[in-house]
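Suppose a colleague, Dr. K., hands you the sequence of a protein chain of 281 amino acids and asks what its three-dimensional shape might be. Before reaching for any lab equipment, you can write down a predicted structure in token form. Begin with the sequence itself:
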Amino acid sequence: MSESVDEAGWGIEPGDEMAPMIEVVGGVIRFHREAAGMGAADFGEAMGYGEDMIRKIERGARIPRLEFLYQADEVLNAGGAVTALRVHTEKARYPKKVRELAQLEARAVEQLLYCTHHIHGLLQTPEYATAMFENRQPALSRGVMDREVAARVARKSVFEQDPAPALCFIQEQVTLERPIGGKMVLRRQLEHLLEVAQLRNVSLQVMPTDREEHAGMHGLIEVLKFPDGTAVGRSDGAFNGRPVSSPRDLRVLELRYGMIRAQALTPRESQAFIEHLLGRL
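The predicted structure, expressed as tokens, is then:
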């Protein structure tokens, strides 16, 4: 997967279904450049980029940033035609894997989510998400990191769906105590958890570290259930970490999740525990 990024835009990933649309975007930009009587080199100079970058964008090999579209529209006197392309580039700017996950999350009527090492992505504040990507190794470029954070934050639209899906979160205690990004970032993150926990469609539980019985020793679990009765799930410690959809495999994940839920603090106890942690910061 390509992680290349620069000030002009992002590289398109191989096999990305958005590639044909990005080629159309590039073609529209080229049309207005030629209509303005500008060569690629002259246009690049006016935009502050090299000719090679301009040609990559025009042939659909790069996803132009929103800032690039606004500037190009002005330079080419396109009357808003280039800026209007943002409706196509906005979706494409998120990594393909994130778009696919967001589509599944948007379809799901119920999600069972157990997270062991960090706050689940759907629960993360932008500051916490940024700190998470800042800790990624090998280190990500600032552009790639910004793209990943924006994609993660965009997934939170699942909380705004109507009808609202049932969202069940179980977090390991350590994920609520590790000060990723510093104590102020953690404080805001814990405050956000308490806010989300008030939603009627959300169940938030904490698995205490001192539990002697723990069915979650095999790691992360995610199960997404859809309106037609089908589902998809995965776990780090089952089926080699691959997504599964057969009823037999899903029963294994749901059994483990059910045991973890029974062993964890209740939602009310979990909120009190988070409030206790906040008081210590």
